[in-house]
Design goal:
Two copies of one chain form a homodimer. By secondary structure, the first copy, chain A, is α/β, with parallel strands linked by helices. The first copy, chain A, has 24 helices and 20 strands. The first copy, chain A, starts with a strand and ends with a helix. Chains A and B meet through helix 2, strand 7, helix 17 and helix 18 of A and helix 2, strand 7, helix 17 and helix 18 of B.
Amino acid sequence: MNTLISLAAVATVSTCLSTSLYAQSPQTALSLMPWPKEVTLQPGFVPVTSAFSIAVSGSGADDARVVHAIPRLLARITRQTGIPIPPAAPPTANHALLSIIVAEPAHSGPQKLGDNERYALTVADNRIQLAADTPLGVLRGIETLLQLIQETPTTPGTAPGFSIPNVVIHDEPRFPWRGLSFDVSRHFMPVPVVKRTIDGLAAVKLNVLHWHLSDDEGFRVESKKFPKLQELGSDGMYYTQDEIREVIAYAADRGIRVEPEFDIPGHSSSFLAAYPELGTGSGPFHVAHEHQPEPDFAMDPTKESTYEFLDSFIAEMTALFPDEYFHVGGDEVSPKRWLANPQIHAFMEEHKMANGAALQAYFSKRVIELVIKHGKHPVGWDEVLNPDLPKTAVVQSWRGQQSLWKAAKEGYQGILSAGLYLDLSYPASYHYAIDPLKAPASPNGGPVGKGPAPGTPADLTPEQAKLILGAEGTMWEELASVEMIDARLWPRLAAMAERFWSPESTTDVASMYRRLETTSEWLEWLGLNHKSNPELMRQRLAGPYPVRPLDVLASLVEPTKGYSRHAERYGIYSVLNRLEFAIPSESDTARRFRNDVDEYLAAPKDQRSSVHLRERMAAWAHAVKELRPMLENESILTENLPLADAVAKLCAVGQEALTYLDGPNAAPADWRKQANVTIKPIVNQRFGDLLIQIGPGIQQLVDAAGR
Amino acid sequence: MNTLISLAAVATVSTCLSTSLYAQSPQTALSLMPWPKEVTLQPGFVPVTSAFSIAVSGSGADDARVVHAIPRLLARITRQTGIPIPPAAPPTANHALLSIIVAEPAHSGPQKLGDNERYALTVADNRIQLAADTPLGVLRGIETLLQLIQETPTTPGTAPGFSIPNVVIHDEPRFPWRGLSFDVSRHFMPVPVVKRTIDGLAAVKLNVLHWHLSDDEGFRVESKKFPKLQELGSDGMYYTQDEIREVIAYAADRGIRVEPEFDIPGHSSSFLAAYPELGTGSGPFHVAHEHQPEPDFAMDPTKESTYEFLDSFIAEMTALFPDEYFHVGGDEVSPKRWLANPQIHAFMEEHKMANGAALQAYFSKRVIELVIKHGKHPVGWDEVLNPDLPKTAVVQSWRGQQSLWKAAKEGYQGILSAGLYLDLSYPASYHYAIDPLKAPASPNGGPVGKGPAPGTPADLTPEQAKLILGAEGTMWEELASVEMIDARLWPRLAAMAERFWSPESTTDVASMYRRLETTSEWLEWLGLNHKSNPELMRQRLAGPYPVRPLDVLASLVEPTKGYSRHAERYGIYSVLNRLEFAIPSESDTARRFRNDVDEYLAAPKDQRSSVHLRERMAAWAHAVKELRPMLENESILTENLPLADAVAKLCAVGQEALTYLDGPNAAPADWRKQANVTIKPIVNQRFGDLLIQIGPGIQQLVDAAGR
């Protein structure tokens, strides 16, 4: 039995997977993420034991990244299995369990965009072979190998333990630029957080950490030339240059490029607080500690001294960051202060600039010239696109695919971030559908604005399509603190990573969610705490009460979506400890409930069973009842009393609906109307900053029962 | 209302606590551990906000330990509450929320045994005052302050958040030596594990890390004079001298002394593997990687070269470790090889030594002279006690209180470790009852051997009693690996810490367990993972199945007790990933069930309710049913099928018993007999290395129902 799992053959194969391999015994279901280009599963497996040994050969074997990866691999096998691997004499390729063959040495200098990441992995005949053209390919293959380790299925005559199934994998990425845009200005993220985030990126084969290092709320890098940037432009929380180098080396070791961003001329209050002479007008300028409804601080693009400062600043920072790309922001510049300033106004008239956009184009041109002068490729957000932009620049689109495709048609390289904002709490399935080369759907499922229907392929020539370099998940951190940043990134970022790496045809949402749940678990083994830290946060909220019923309530709700939570009340020192911060962005429980309701309703009436739906709703109702003393007495939780009441009502109505659906008699004529009077104020309604995500499933039951 | 909670007034007060304060609203129940000498709770509280400010005064204010403690305190408040505390201008004592007054500067040099640890904490009128004689007292008071922070009770007109109840506390320790003996030879524990263990020790006011650095299985310190010790005496896992200094500094900052132990002349295979000339006979000697039923390697006490080596070695190590005390082991020396060696035999005859003990006494005397020569107080296990032992030596007793009291009567200082072996998986209540100044009970509740009845006070004069310096929880690590060491130490070590710190009268077990549960939770906030890591280990065992039913089963069982698990099959590279390693040493669920059964049976029949007992047994039965496919298919778990069946049987019999107990009719005549046929092979029986701890509660129900 050979099961060919080439996902190149589109949804047919994916569907086939979910009904054959995936739906079989859990032991044979691989949980690889991102799904490789070609996977052929074969019977049998190789046991993982304390005698695990590795031999590395090929002309790239001495590459530091490969050398460092070996002990890390062994340590991770131990963590994933509990099996200690004692130090052993280096094996030869002949008797090593794992042979790694690295065909080519890496080019000199730091990792470049487009470096070969291909690898082949063969597990057969009690041996494992990982072959790659480059050290980078080895790193990617190691991550796949680690994902293959599973507990051995119980089989007579086979020792209990862990093993790796026999498999042949050929893999390479779809896009060369696969990143996370990581804001550390709104909430500073200390080095250990950045490092564990890099571990996560590497585990799901992302290859760019786009580090958003300055914004209105803080400047986060030590500048030796302009020390006031960190002294006055931050609250003392910034990375020293040594720490920057340490993070870059850590990332490089894991095959991740680090692209810095300093956002100018807008989003630059932290620059102006340090060096007011850069600003429009005389200030006073200050770092934004509170929410700014309309931030309008910006650099003055008309002064030559601004460019002298930036020349010197960019010289320092391009020397600190070895990556070829250097991001200069350029988004959301308010022209208000520019236009209100007589001097700037005069400059614009003199240079025949019709509006703020023209002035920004002038600024962009000057800054981009500086970036190029210092040997880097400039990157900017959509707004930097203008006829003067040199073709070496890269446009990162927060506006959407249309904007990206337009740039590509004009010959510009581009990266997509629209639809990939992790901070907005949309589900993984929404982000999973965002493809840089297809028209997107809106979060609510419809087309975006007047664009083409969702899924319509980009109208680009193959040459133009190649200019679309990839995409970045984007994490803005107004509402994320150190203790729950992991829960905002993971596991949804892994689903995005699959979109950026795997073949275009890898689109089976059910398979994605099944594998995402496993991925989420082993990301915790890697040191991420997206599951465990929210648990601790809920424990904190529960005080002396048993936390379990609160965990149950938490499993049914999600934070409200989009920008609805960015209210005036949040600043960088706001307290983010309420229930909405102590939950994942997406509820697995609610998703499963929705699927089970669909399945229940789709089945012929004589084959339906409502037992599990009933049991779950009963357990939820029980939990919110148990929860009441905690909610009444623990002050931070008390705001959730209406939420708990609403869950109880939903469960009661849901049980009624099932009674009618299961029973011989239809619901009375006005039952549905009455039920809707109860649940309409609940389903899709906000409770503070929370949504009850089992609501839609119960609404479906009501609609079906009352038909 | 002033609630005076002086626990100086013995069990009466404790009992009063458990029925008044502790049993009231959870909000007023303080979860301090160890319980302070005097606690007076008053109405009202001080809110904890982002404006938390600290002023330090007094002539000890500049002590490095105090200076370093302040940012740590703020960071921990943030971790415990989620409230960010932005940097602020240093407040003056006049308007700071927390005033710390340190009366005296510390003496110069490292922390000494007996250094003053007293403090007073007053929370009143929206201010907090922490006053201590010394910097050490400040550290202890800070831990109490952190334990006082709780979620504010919901009160109209009061903002939701966290607060500190108004309280006056006067506190100081009962014993000056309160430690953990920490074996890092059998399983090496890397620096981060040692550091987080130190965090835990400091949090429960322990003050000694007794670091067991060498044993048969490995020598764990870099020696510059004798580098073969780490090169041949370990498998490459050892602390560099820089790391040792780093750990000592880390511990010193937290008020913890670090006492090294190098165990000689027995338990010394790692010495002999490196320097065979130290050994008895010609070897070959090797580090013990596998279990040794009767390890009999020992140094040769008859060669002068042995003492020349030890002189030089002790010189190096006493310089590395600044503590005044230096532990030279001395336990469990097998004379077998000595007596079989003609040369040694001749030496013994020449020196009129009747037996191995006499030869060991000679060795001890020589070694202790060396320790004293290098400026340290020697410490050794029971066996070093002999008439030649100088009075500056300290005897650490693994044999028992009698041994300790005997030493005290002879004028020796002593430390208790008997009854405090964390590796043997006894419950916290057992260890909590172990008092260095009272006769112990055996783990099964009876007296130990022919000793006096449990609880009998030591027959020592006050002067002799003062020689009992304190006690150490003892963790031998044959069966502990990095991933579950925390679960073997915590939370039980916190209960021991209370015994060592709190007044002798603090003995209420129910109160201890209530506070221990809270303590266990906030130890996770501190970075210990005694709860979260076993969860991950169970997740690993569960493979692709939902882990929850396995967690339920895990909550009902405990590892077998005592030395019953130290079988031949364990060596330092054994795989410790089975269920018995993925659970706490003590089951909270089983303990609560036992208590609830007691309460149910003690109540008059018309006031009994079995609802909760029934619900729980139904949930357990349901979980083990759900669990079956996981146990059948995941190979490492398959051995637990009989365990799961046994739980199902116990629950079924328990439900039957409750039916008879609740109902009007007694059980049929032979019911009890039949029930016992079912459960006797289960209750108190081993399932592999596990015990089902709900068994005794169900046995009680059966006994009562069949009466």
